[in-house]
Amino acid sequence: MAEKTLLKGNIALAQGAIAAGCRYYFGYPITPQNDIPEYLSAELPKIGGTFIQAESELASINMVMGASAAGARVMTSSSGPGISLMQEGMSYMAGSELPALVVNVMRVGPGLGGIAPTQGDYFQATRGGGHGDYFNIVLAPASVQEMFGLAIKAFDLSDKYRNPAMILCDAVLGQMKEPVILEERGAEAPPARPWALTGAKGRKPQFLKTLYLSDGEQEAHNLELKGKYDLLRKEDVLFEGKGLDDSEVVIVAFGTVSRIVKTAIQMAGDEGIRVGLIRPITLFPFPAEVVRRTAKKIRRVLVVEMNTGQMVEDVRLSIEDKVKLRFYGRPGGGIPTPEDVLREIKVTLDEKGF
Amino acid sequence: MKKVFSRPKSLVDCQTHFCPGCTHGTAHRLVADAIDHFGVREKTIGVSGVGCAVFMYDYFAFDAIEAPHGRAPAVATGIKRVHPDKIVFTYQGDGDLASIGTSEIIHTANRGESITVIFINNTVYGMTGGQMAPTTLLGQKTTTTPYGRNFRNDGYPIRMAEMLATLEGVAYSTRVSMHNAKEVLKAKKAVRKAFEMQIADMGLTFVELLSACHTNWRVKPLEGQKRVEEEMIPYFTLGVFKERKEKDFL
Ligand SMILES: Cc1ncc(C[n+]2csc(CCOP(=O)(O)OP(=O)(O)O)c2C)c(N)n1
Ligand code: SF4
Ligand SMILES: [Mg+2]
What we know:
The structure holds two protein chains of two kinds.
Chain A (H helix, E strand, L loop, with lengths): L3 E5 H11 L4 E4 L7 H9 L6 E4 L3 H13 L4 E5 L1 H6 L1 H9 L4 E7 L15 H5 L10 E3 L4 H18 L2 E7 H5 L1 E5 L25 E2 L8 H19 L3 E4 L6 E4 L2 H16 L4 E6 L1 E3 L3 H10 L2 E6 L5 H8 L5 E6 L8 H12 L5
Parallel strand pairs in A: 2-3, 2-4, 4-5, 5-7, 6-7, 11-12, 11-14, 14-15
Antiparallel strand pairs in A: 1-8, 6-13, 10-12
Helix pairs in contact in A: 1-2, 1-7, 3-5, 10-13, 11-12
Chain B lengths: L22 H15 L6 E5 L7 H4 L3 E4 L5 H11 L4 E7 H7 L1 H9 L5 E6 L2 E2 L5 E2 L18 H4 L5 H6 L4 E8 L3 H19 L4 E7 L3 H4 L3 H15 L3 E5 L7
Parallel strand pairs in B: 1-2, 1-3, 3-4, 4-8, 7-8
Antiparallel strand pairs in B: 5-6, 7-9
Helix pairs in contact in B: 1-8, 4-5
């Protein structure tokens, strides 16, 4: 058995990025993700990498764009207001098909909000967030081990699709310590990047752009991007499923809150109530198919989130109208307790709950 | 017959979208000339801002990327940090660099990134139809200063070359003009020097080029050049504001 190391989530994520071959980090401080830049500012110079504390998140994401265009594996991390500032750059990166990892250790909002854990940025992350017709690849870890492993996965997917990838997590995952197996295996070798800007030596000049003005050019470009998103939906959906055959109710929950849900499911089991769980690991692409299939058998679905109801819309779109769907959420830093969730399970089972 | 004039190898042989007589074309040529002169076409990466020169990548025969409006210096930073051996430059208008992108240019300059910045000061937003730029002169009429720029409402025209010269990270900061052949030759030298100093890794080099936008100034091309000389130069003094002689980093 591989050895386990006790690590904080943010540090595990940074180590995952290094394991994936990322050598460039550009970012601006904001709580609750500061451990990531602090750690990388110490580690990257030791391994021939570059760390820059940028003047703003606008600058960070554009440095990321430049480094990616130059052919490097590169990342940034931020939270709430900083992620909002990066949306312009992420739109340009999706448009010019540039891979990179953007980590959002969510904090509550709107506005400056606070640093308490939340899942309030689900829409921003999964709907593209910036202007134009595009999506980010979004991964939601639920343990420190996944903070490490999904960082690697995010780089691989980002390269495979030439599209920005985001890790969506929160202060609970960022700050808590858990034992982690630091897999020896790094990322898959980054695919060749014949499109990268390296100087036109021995080849024709090439360029990266997002502006398409001639007739039909932009439409063709958008349809090409859509092709990639369709392929993602087909090939790279990730989720954890438990008790999806014989439960009375199935819960859909991601990230931090899925851990609380698991405790509640155990408590329900102790009382003889069988509850299943679908935990989306990719939020985009959303595991719509497993939700659809499961709801054909289990006709009661409960969605639990740490917001006022965002992923629930994706669940609703995945199931028939006749399926009973209930939402339970706490926004603004409120964290549901297992008892809260157990109560909601019972309400979901009760006809009067609808 | 001796050939005295030909297209630089770094320029593509094509028609540009610039208005006839626009000095953006002249500035492109100066950049291409410098890159040819130092024989670095195959290791040059250009970063265009958003403005009339956004299609730069169609005209230059080297690698290029289009940055979001104002962010070219940050994009160039990312590229140069990955490829310290390449020649990286940004090409930005006055709206791009001196308004929406002030933060990026100041901090890129302050970090002393080894890049060259070509800054086209034409006192208007050319691409979007002639609105006020941060460089618009007092009293100058634009589509958003129909009564003339008034400092009480709009502030003062900003002098970027002087401002950037105050930063330690800047190796070279100069303002030149392109309103006649003599000035174009001086501008050519300045652009060459800027690339030369980048090749010597001395810090950020900045060339502000006074440029005419006769289309949005609503004048004939020649009158545009006259206006550069008579109205712009008195306010935007030509000269070298900083020139590092050696790698005298603090
Ligand atoms: C974020 C953003 N805001 C506004 C614009 C619209 N826009 C495009 S070019 C431009 C100004 C260009 O002026 P300048 O930089 O002076 O270049 P010029 O065309 O004069 O060479 C503006 C405001 C944009 N592209 N992006
Ligand atoms: S609008 Fe002005 S800056 Fe733009 S191409 Fe025409 S003359 Fe040149
Ligand atoms: Mg302008």
